[in-house]
Write a structure and sequence with these properties.
mainly alpha, globular, binds iron/sulfur cluster
C-alpha cells in the first residue's frame, strides 16, 4: 500500500467475512503465485547466503520495480553495509536452494545489485 486510498480500500475489504468459495479461490491464487514474490522469511535463506540480507534486498527491488520508487530504493540499497552487497563472497546458489518458494534468488539479487548500485 503506497497511499491512503489503498489503505482505506484494504480496510474496507476486511469488514465483511469472505465466503468459503472466496477463501478457496484466494488459497488457489496464493499457491499459484507464491513463487513470484519474496515472502520476507529471510531466516530461511540468509544464513546460506553468507552476508546478503536477501529478504531486504528483494524488498528494495520491489520498491524499485513494482512501486517505481527508484531513487528511494537505490538510496536504501546503497546504505546497506558493504558485506550485504558483496555478491562475490555470497553464496546465492545456496540461498536459492534454501528458498521453499522456488524464487530465482541468485538472479533476482544480481538484478537488484545491477539496478540499485
Ligand atoms: S528468497 Fe525465499 S526464503 Fe528468502 S526471504 Fe524470500 S521467500 Fe523467503
Amino acid at each position: 500500500m503506497t497511499n491512503r486510498d489503498m489503505l482505506r480500500e484494504n480496510i474496507a475489504a476486511t469488514r465483511d467475512p469472505i465466503t468459503a468459495k472466496e477463501a478457496r479461490l484466494l488459497e488457489e491464487h496464493r499457491q499459484r503465485t507464491s513463487n513470484l514474490y519474496c515472502h520476507g522469511c529471510g531466516h530461511l535463506c540468509e544464513t546460506a547466503a553468507h552476508g546478503v540480507p536477501v529478504a531486504t534486498v528483494l524488498r528494495y527491488l520491489r520498491y524499485y520495480e513494482a512501486y517505481g520508487k527508484r531513487q528511494e530504493a537505490r538510496a536504501l540499497y546503497q546504505a546497506l553495509p558493504a558485506q550485504a552487497r558483496d555478491l562475490a563472497s555470497a553464496n546465492l546458489a545456496a540461498a536459492e536452494a534454501a528458498c521453499p518458494y522456488g524464487l530465482p534468488v541468485a538472479q533476482l539479487v544480481q538484478i537488484a545489485d545491477r539496478r540499485m548500485s
